[in-house]
Amino acid sequence: MEHEILITRLFNDHLGGVGQSILAAIGTHAHNPERPWTNWMTMQLLVAAVVIVVFAILRPKLSMDKPGKLQHIFESLYLFLKGETDTNVGHHGHRYLPFFGTVFFFILFANLIGVIPGFESPTMFPYVPCGIAIAAFLYYNIAGIQAQGAGKYLAHFAGPVPAMAPLMFPIEIISNFARPLSLTVRLYANMYAGEQVTLVFLSLTYLVMPAVFMGLHVFVSFLQAYIFALMTMIYVGGATHHDEH
Description:
8 helices, mainly alpha, 245 residues
């Protein structure tokens, strides 16, 4: 049984019945019915709440004349994501930018929250990266169908050479369904490994090395959020590229 962090303990002590009801509604059961909430479940709820609060605080403070430091930070991130979207999706990519931004900021906050003592990054549990990967998979396939129509979208899996279609179609379909797995493994493996390395060095020393690895953890957090968002952009661009014509 995993160690319960404080927020998980609070959920299980006061909202255990709610947790059981939610799990029952989706057709699953907790390993321990008396303690249905797990760390990854409570932490991703906390991350979602933090993202909402941060942007709720930021919105009324937006100013053209006197932008604050927080506005400068998020404007820089927005412009960066917009530039990457234009590069990888095309001039019509602005319609997909809200989804890319949501993915990026949720993963970024989920990665960074593990730096705070007493909290854990929900992305170091495979269920959370898998959920985000499935959402990205569904999104870019739906975007492709909307942009090209179901028949034309499925036809692009056959490749440009009709004679090679019987060979290419199953290969492309398998490759398409392998994408959520690669997204999941990449994010989960990097965050889990980073967390374990940090914990090991924290147990050995409490001054210089932990600070170094905390900095590394922050860098990896940004990098993995960017890579996940970038791959999603590339997949959307590939699914909708005929829309350019």
